[in-house]
Amino acid sequence: MIADKIKLQPEKLEAVVIRFVGDSGDGMQLTGTQFSDTSAMFGNDIATFPNYPSEIRAPQGSLYGVSGFQVHIGSVEVSTPGDSVDLLVAMNPAALKTNIYALKPGHTLIIDTDSFTKKNLDKAEYTTNPLEDGSLDNFRVIEVDMTSLTKEALKDVAGLDNKTISRSKNMFSLGMVYWMYNRSLEHTIDFFNKKFKSKPSLVEANTKVLNAGYYFAETLELIPNSYTISPAKMEAGTYRIIMGNTATAWGFLAAAEKSGLELFLGSYPITPATDILHELVKHKHFGVKAFQAEDEIAGVTSAIGASFAGDLAITTTSGPGLALKGEAIGLAIMTELPLVVVNVQRGGPSTGLPTKTEQSDLLQAMYGRNGESPVIVIAASTPANCFNFAYEAARLALEHMTPVILLTDGYIANGSAPWKIKTVAEMPPIKNNRITEVKENWHPYDRDEKTLARNWAIPGTPGLEHRIGGLEKDAVTGNISYEPANHETMTNIRAEKIERVKFNIPDIETEFTDAGDLLVIGWGGTYGSLHSAVKQINDEGYKNIGYAHFNYINPMPKNTEAILSKYKKILVCELNSGQFASILKIKHSKFEFLQFNKVQGLPFANDDLIQKFKELV
Amino acid sequence: METTAEKKYTAKDFTSDQEVRWCPGCDDYVILRTMQKALPEMGVARENVVFISGIGCSSRFPYYINSYGIHSIHGRAPGIASGVKLANPNLSVWIATGDGDAMAIGGNHFIHVLRRNIDLNIILFNNEIYGLTKGQFSPTSLIGQKTKSSPYGNTQPPFSPGELALGAQARFFARVGGGSPKEMGQIFMEAHQFKGTSLIEVLQNCVIFNDGCFNHITDKEVKDDKQIYLEHGKPMIFGKNRDKGLVLNRLKLETVTIGENGITQEDLLVHNAKEKDPTLHYMLVRLESPLATGVIRSFDDVTLEEREDALTAQVKANSSFTKTDDLFFSGETYEVK
Questions:
Q1: Residue A346: per-residue pLDDT
Q2: Given a cut of 90, is residue B211 above it in pLDDT?
Q3: Residue among B45, B319, B336 minimizing CB distance to A285
Q4: B39 φ/ψ angles, rounded to the nearest 5 degrees
Q5: CA–CA separation, A80 and A102 (whole Å)
Q6: Which Pfam families match (chain A) (predicted)?
Q7: Which end of chain B is more exposed for a tag (fewer CB within 10 A), N or C?
């Protein structure tokens, strides 16, 4: 039942990292989500990271069919899902084998012993049973015959088949973990009531198993003491837990409402971006037009058509899809139409690592088109601020009449965190360049003097009929022009137009120290890991390390050079081989940029970062 | 649905200030002139007319029509046009495309736009050759055809646009010779009036790279005997002397002569373009001699916009959300004090 080596002390912890792992069919995503939502409502700060295979249902018990959900909860600010784990819940041998590396020595492991059969051990390629061979001696192992206990708990519930019974065992583990961390069962029981509204037997079964796990942990005193994690000090307000992709979708909803335009999404399913499509198709009540196209190209071209006709038009994709959209994005650059392209990055090249994270599409976003074709490139950095940057992408596209590429990644897109809810009223205004008035000598490429954005005359407006297209335009009339000097003029205008966006975005701010020995630079979805690593090293007494995080990549904030010049060394940390560093080297060539790069499909590990920082100071 | 114009236009109102740059003698001129004449008849306000094209000779079309338009990228006009129409269903949306643009590089979009049945119109300029890139074989070029990229003869079997379209669920398909402005104008009008995606194949002569490829069908002297111009509700009759017709013999269409073997006009098939079952339309599309022209299929079906509108109305009626704030504060939220 339980190893007698467990000697838990009563603990009040600041933060704890828990990972639930099991077979793809074991319901680990649900278990993890329930635990993180409950903790957030309790007042903890949280960060989560699901890690699942790209196979929908990999063979049961196999190593590659393991699905996991990691959650970091804290009474202090939590900015990453954490790398090493304080509590590992492993539902089968394959899950144990693939995840035990992450558990901190001396920390707790909960195991469903019923799943440690010869067959499952073979599938996990164990030659000896890890529960018997001493390989887990360094951990506090809690062995629970969870499947049997679940069956026992459900013996009086009528109308359940064996499959349903064995699938509820995840709730047993959740019940145990709730007790260990002093969490209420209320939120999860509410969830059962809603989810299984029409199937009362499932509400009863899941509630019973959850309670059974909870009381198993409590009344049998198998776990001497529970942990407590107090509520975090967070800004007052109304919160909800939000996933990055949902936040992205909602940012566009807010932008559409604020700008008074209808939202059009042209999209084609691709991991890990599809959840944005899933979210936006729900919102027909707001007049959202979500069009699932026949391919990535039709996704972007339909959006270009909708933009021409006056909608706030977006398209969503991941790396390979961005490659397919490249030519059409060039058309939107040439026709100077507002368009947002979301790229939820994943590991590449080619099909690469569809469910893993990477920041390797930056150069594709910057340069991945024929001709000189500058676009605005911005990147979100946390699950919650995907909302802000989706909104910002829409604002910049409309105000500057240009495509904007918004980069997120699989890590923040699927991660979730508390979001202090924003009302549309508190979001910044969004202007657009729509015109309806017919003026003498009007041309479609007449521009705003300050921003160089052209005016936007949409079909249906009498007197402003005009034709645009992919051929080079005369700088004055907008008609086709093959004039050599005109082409250079237009190339320069397109570049200058993007460059001037820097006057419409905030300056970059450095954290921890605004001058010193080392500036750590990150961009996009690595904010959590980098921020907490720099914070940790500062807490350890290294006060001369600053941190700058870039959300605006093209153009960069106008004070970039000023902040770069305040540090002796600059270290650019990225989940690629140095793409942002290469852009910095081109644009700020007088500085030397050191690099720290990882391309393993995973977020940065804290220890690796700390070690690198220490080498440099 | 498009609103009707109050103003009465003339062809001149739809003529842009751009110099037309097709080769002299090209059928494209006929198509352009016919469209400029047909548009005023349609009664759509000029600002509500949108022409979208891809790449190729035919795709220059939007520049010459004084309305809104996009000359886009190769093969992608259907995507752009779909976005335009879904964004503003009040617009009359037209696509000008060619055989290469629609059926080679844009083949995927072409079949899907037909499948969806969005209310827009496609004019397919079929000249069985790539003109703008100067003379390579296209997906409608014939086997054996000698072109710049098939000097010893083309080895790739051609598509028939009509067959492809019907296979892709096209509800409206018409075919017309490039030198027949009268019929063409009539077909443009019917396409405009049709609710759903309409496809018009124009047999368009390329005077430079494939000159005369349709002469055996479209020449004045042979036209009446080599073409059967179909009209809904009328018998399938053709010939210089209006004495030939089509009957169904087992599973094949057969040409008969009125007055021979006791055949009278009553024996001939009567064209039903509005029939849902496309079997006979398919046979007509495949018929080589006489070649079927006119509106071959015009089946009234629900459009994508109608389905979407109905769903949206239903979702709106059942939703308590009117503002995004309602959504943001819905469900599980919690207070931090």
A1: 96
A2: yes
A3: B319
A4: -55, -45
A5: 15
A6: POR, POR_N
A7: C
CB contact, 8 Å: B16 with chain A? yes
Distance from CA of A220 to the nearest CA of B (A): 33
Interface test with B, best of A192, A250, A263, A308 (most B CBs within 10 A): A308
Q: What CA–CA distance (Å, rounded) separates B159 from B171?
A: 19
Task: Specify whether the CB–CB gap between A574 and A609 falls below 8 A.
Answer: no
CA distance A133 to A51: 28
Rounded Cα distance, A229 and A87, in Å: 14
Residues of B in contact with A231 (CB under 8 A): 336
Q: According to CATH, what is the number of the domain A11-228?
A: 3.40.920.10
- Residue A315 above 50 pLDDT? yes
What pTM did the predictor assign? Answer: 0.91
Check if the beta carbon of residue B273 is closer than 8 Å to that of residue B230.
yes
pLDDT cut 90: percent of chain A above it: 81
Q: What is the pLDDT of residues B269-288, one digit of tens each?
A: 999 999 999 999 999 999 99
What pLDDT was estimated at residue A75? 86
pLDDT above 90: percentage of residues in chain B = 96
Instruction: Reply yes or no on whether the pLDDT at A1 is more than 90.
Output: no
User: Which amino acid, one-letter code, is at A557?
Assistant: P
* Among candidate residues A341, A20, A353, the one with its CA nearest the CA of residue A176: A20
Instruction: Name the pLDDT band for B214 (thresholds 50, 70, 90).
Output: very high
Cβ proximity of B287 and B175 under 8 Å: no
- Report the CATH number of the A510-616 domain: 3.40.50.920
Contact B177, B217 (CB under 8 A): yes
CA distance readout (Å), B298 to B93, B122, B196: 18, 14, 9
Nearest C-alpha in B relative to A234: B336
What CATH topology corresponds to B11-231+284-309? Rossmann fold (3.40.50)
Q: Any idea which residue has 């001939």 for tokens?
A: B268
Give the nearest chain B residue to A39 (CA atoms).
B334
- What is the CA angle B247-B250-B253, rounded to 5? 35
Q: Could you tell me which residues are beta bridge partners of residue A70? A: A19, A49
Q: Do the strands B227-230 and B291-298 form a parallel or antiparallel pair, or are they unpaired?
A: parallel
Angle, CA A358 vertex, CA A354 and CA A362 arms, to 5°: 115
**Alpha helical stretches, state H, A232-281:** 244-259, 274-281
Judged against a pLDDT cut of 90, whether residue A3 lies above it is answered with no
CA A356 to chain centre: 11
ipTM given for this complex: 0.97
Tell me how crowded residue B305 is: count the other CB atoms within 10 A of its CB: 19
**Residues of chain B contacting residue A337, judged by C-beta atoms under 8 Å apart:** none
Decide if A305 and B82 are in contact by the 8 Å CB cutoff. Answer: yes
CATH architecture of A240-426: 3-Layer(aba) Sandwich (3.40)
Distance in Å, alpha carbon of A210 to nearest chain B alpha carbon: 20
Q: Where are the domains of chain B?
A: 11-231+284-309
Q: Does position A384 have pLDDT exceeding 60, yes or no?
A: yes
Distances (CA, A) of A43 to A36, A230, A531, B315: 11, 8, 22, 35
Query: What does the domain layout of chain A look like in residue ranges?
Result: 11-228, 240-426, 510-616
**Closest partner residue to B83 among A41, A301, A464, by Cβ?**
A301
Q: Which of residues 437-496 of A touch B (CB under 8 A)?
A: 458-471, 479-480
Across the interface, whether the CB atoms of A306 and B45 are under 8 A apart is answered: no
Q: Are A168 and A31 in contact (CB under 8 A)?
A: no
Least Cα distance to A166 among A106, A222, A105, A92 occurs for A92
Interface contact A468-B84, CB threshold 8 A: no
Among chain B residues, CA nearest to A309: B84
Residues of chain A neighbouring B333 (CB-CB closer than 8 A): 238-240, 421
